[in-house]
């Protein structure tokens, strides 16, 4: 690992590295390169943290944590109302704290931060918006992604998610175009803020690509909370709509001729900019790996992550979906003590194993704390743990983790 390189070796391999983009991938790249003894410059045109901290994970999860508390109290007979302005201020406070903390860490590590935009103007040459010319041995492009605006939509008021949540007054009704993770989470947020929501998805079910039982469970939860769902539709006419139709990679601006960003040995593209797994956890891992790739010319390692939905009734998935040659179990969690305490009905855990070897291949969870539970399953899958070994684990009681064990027990019967 990079951290184990001794100081003399570090100095021998000292390189000048420029990183464009200060999101999860760029931040971790700056940390790993600085630790490896490289002269590291990070260029960021807005704020550290990228989409995750400033527009995505942190703001939406702040809203959803408040909504989870509201729904739990309502299940106990205590009614309360959420104030959008107060929630927005809470988001801004958390974003500010995280950005300040990231900057503090980088400066303490000796990373030079330039608050500007930049373009690639020649062989190992970068120019800032102010005209400063910088040279490097290695360029790391961690330039993130941008939302895909749907085509052929006729809409009086079409919003991006960030635009919508910044409004002083939310519309009374709105359609959400796209029922992936963001669309589902946003539907819950807006509904809790007293907006009448219609979730529109062109595929046959919400959360296409997820386990079908998870799609059904989340659809039931959304419907229970007053959210209308339209699937299998190419609907294109809306009054108010917000689009959640995915992201596309952003790459650095190149003004020099004969530089192929994708096939140049001194350029490393990481995070969302690769167009592969567009998730903050994958981006951070790629950033952490990049220093060893630079020093030892290692190949890019595939990053395997779990998928999570952070609505109060959560969902999470790691590893393989059921297919031929695999065995699948289904454990309904409603009668488990920990699930009952959460007042979150309709949850389940599905475990998947190889029929021949009994190696665990996947876990799919719906219900309270699914995003925390999936980490246990993720480790079991990554370590190729056998079902017989997993059921020997003893989990604290009453906890959600016990339910993974119950699901695996069913595979062993």
UniProtKB/TrEMBL annotation:
GO biological process entries:
2-oxoglutarate metabolic process
Q: Does the keyword Disulfide bond apply?
A: yes
Q: Which cofactor does it need?
A: FAD
Domain Pyridine nucleotide-disulphide oxidoreductase dimerisation span(s) in chain numbering: 306-407
Pfam families, per database record:
Pyr_redox_2 (PF07992), Pyr_redox_dim (PF02852)
Q: Which domain of life is it from?
A: Bacteria
GO MF terms listed in the record are:
dihydrolipoyl dehydrogenase (NADH) activity; flavin adenine dinucleotide binding
| PANTHER family, alphabetized | DIHYDROLIPOYL DEHYDROGENASE, MITOCHONDRIAL (PTHR22912:SF151), DISULFIDE OXIDOREDUCTASE (PTHR22912)
* Protein name, per record: NAD(P)/FAD-dependent oxidoreductase
The protein's organism comes out as: Emergencia timonensis
């Amino acid at each position: 690992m990079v951290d184990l390189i001794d100081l003399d070796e570090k100095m021998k391999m000292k390189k000048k590295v420029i990183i464009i983009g200060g999101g999860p991938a760029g931040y971790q790249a700056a940390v790993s390169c600085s630790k490896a003894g490289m002269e590291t410059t990070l260029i960021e045109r807005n704020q550290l943290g990228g989409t995750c901290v400033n527009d995505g994970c942190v703001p939406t999860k702040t809203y959803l944590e408040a909504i989870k508390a509201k729904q739990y109290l309502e299940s106990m007979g205590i009614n309360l109302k959420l104030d959008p302005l107060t929630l927005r201020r809470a988001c801004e406070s958390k974003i500010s704290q995280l950005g300040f903390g990231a900057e503090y860490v980088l400066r303490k590590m000796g990373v030079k931060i330039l608050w500007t935009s930049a373009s690639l103007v020649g062989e190992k040459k970068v120019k800032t918006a102010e005209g400063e010319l910088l040279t490097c041995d290695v360029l790391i492009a961690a330039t993130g992604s941008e939302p895909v605006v749907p085509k052929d939509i006729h809409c009086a008021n079409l919003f991006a998610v960030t635009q919508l949540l910044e409004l002083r007054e939310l519309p009374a009704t709105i359609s959400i175009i796209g029922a992936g993770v963001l669309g589902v989470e946003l539907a819950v947020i807006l509904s809790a803020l007293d907006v009448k929501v219609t979730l529109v998805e062109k595929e046959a079910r919400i959360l296409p690509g997820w386990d079908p039982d998870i799609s059904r469970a989340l659809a039931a939860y959304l419907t229970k909370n007053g959210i209308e769902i339209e699937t299998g539709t190419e609907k294109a006419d809306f009054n108010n709509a917000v689009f959640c139709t995915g992201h596309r990679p952003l790459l650095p601006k190149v003004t020099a001729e004969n530089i192929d960003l994708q096939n140049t040995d001194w350029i490393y593209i990481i995070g969302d900019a690769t167009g592969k797994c567009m998730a903050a956890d994958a981006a951070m891992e790629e950033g952490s790996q990049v220093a060893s790739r630079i020093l030892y010319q290692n190949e890019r390692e595939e990053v395997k992550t779990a998928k999570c939905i952070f609505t109060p009734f959560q969902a999470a998935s790691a590893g393989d979906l059921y297919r031929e040659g695999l065995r699948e179990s289904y454990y309904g969690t409603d009668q488990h003590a920990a699930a009952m305490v959460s007042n979150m009905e309709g949850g389940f855990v599905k475990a998947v194993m190889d029929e021949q070897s009994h190696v665990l291949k996947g876990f799919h969870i719906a219900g309270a704390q699914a995003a925390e539970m999936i980490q246990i399953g993720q480790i079991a899958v990554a370590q190729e743990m056998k079902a017989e070994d997993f059921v020997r684990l003893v989990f604290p009681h009453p906890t959600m983790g016990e339910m993974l064990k119950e699901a695996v027990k069913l595979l062993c019967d």
